[in-house]
Amino acid sequence: PGVKILMSGGTRCNITHATDRRGIVAAFGDQGPFLHSALAALGPDELLAMFHAEGVATKVDPGGKVFPVSDRALDVLRALERMLAKSGAQLVLDEAVTGIDPNSSGFHVQTNRRLLTTEKVIVTVGGQSYPGCGTTGDGYAWAKALGHTIVWPRPALVPLLSPAAWVHELRGVTIPDVAVAILEPMAEPGAEPTAKTTAKTTASGRGSFLFTHFGLSGPVVMDLSRVITERPHVASWQATCDFLPALKDAELTARLAAEASAAGKKAVINILAEWAPRRLVEALMQLAGVPVERRFAELSRAERTALVVALKSTAIPITGSLGFKKAEVTAGGVSLADVDSRTMQSKRTPNLYLAGEILDLDGPIGGYNFQAAFSTGWLAGESV
Q1: Contact between 58 and 69 (Cβ < 8 Å)
Q2: What is the Cα–Cα distance from 73 to 104, expressed in whole angstroms?
């Protein structure tokens, strides 16, 4: 049990985010108000107190993510297993549920081994992300058969694919602070669908960024990925990257000019490598058409301008994502309109409760989704 917990946060388990209830609600945007009752039952402070009581000390990283001090997801899992043992509940493994059917006394739950009869059922089988862990979307069929609306499930918090060779060559390069904007192609007024298009920004963010052998990853990329996965018919997205977001274009231009005056004999790459990873600088200089051996005194005004554009607004083509197999979260699921947020009970099927990622509820990276799962699960448990 708990395979996803062991995988999460790079095997460290990002339990929650260092914020209050309102911060969690805000992070989920339009879906956030659904969580008010669940967070009132179990907010971030109560969740951490529960783990602390089980001997799991926690810490907060600079970005607000909460991890066990040990950096071991296994400690989180073992604490949950101890809580389960104390509760008196029975954990049954290697027994797949194949169907849930209401009857006069409650429900028949059919497994691959037996038929169980129960008055109430809580479904917390997760979404469809990382199917290798067992989350293959089984719960959607059960919920649909019981009258629920299923909002189209799609990958969220997932790495993105790029065909750009220079991106692949930079695999492993991490930049701690990059501003990224996702641009969607937009047909020019009156143009035919096949005509050359311009683009409009559909989402933007800022955070850690990683080049990979297949494209882009890192928290900022994964946070923005849902705008792409929810529109798979769009084939030619772009990610525009500002690799020096702390500097405005004019400030960077002025710094380059100042370096030309003060240190004209220095190689451009040696100075820029103090501001960004050297491998990235080499790639951006090539994209800008500036020879890697160029010295500051030799830079033309046009080359300075090209460097600013490369550092502040390089466009990377995006062709899609790695899909459910590498998505940390599933967007979509059982419609929130079908669930009473005060109890997590279904509005369609009495005595059926739904919680966690099976719901149409997905938040940003940083422990928010774990908090939502813990809180809705806790409320469902309290309600039965």
Answers
A1: yes
A2: 42
What does the alpha-carbon distance between residue 115 and residue 111 come to, in Å, rounded to a whole number? 6
Residue 1 tokens, joined: 């049990």
Cβ 240 vs Cβ 224: under 8 Å: no
Structure tokens given for 216: 């882009």
> Does residue 17 sit in helix, strand or coil?
strand
Length of the chain: 384
Nearest CA to 130 out of 159, 167, 152, 89 is that of 159
CA angle 229, 234, 239 (to 5 degrees): 70
Residue range 203-244, pLDDT digits in tens: 999 999 999 999 999 999 999 999 999 988 887 899 999 999
pTM (predicted TM-score): 0.90
Structure confidence by residue, pLDDT tens digits, 340-359: 999 999 999 999 999 999 99
Matching residue, tokens 């809705």: 376
CA distances from 119 to 91, 113, 379 (A): 18, 20, 18
Q: Where are the alpha helices (DSSP H) in the chain?
A: 3-11, 21-27, 36-41, 44-53, 73-87, 138-145, 165-169, 219-224, 226-229, 249-262, 268-272, 278-288, 301-313, 368-383
> Does residue 96 register a pLDDT over 80?
yes
Nearest to 170 by CA among 26, 35, 283, 77: 283
Q: Are 110 and 98 in contact (CB under 8 A)?
A: yes
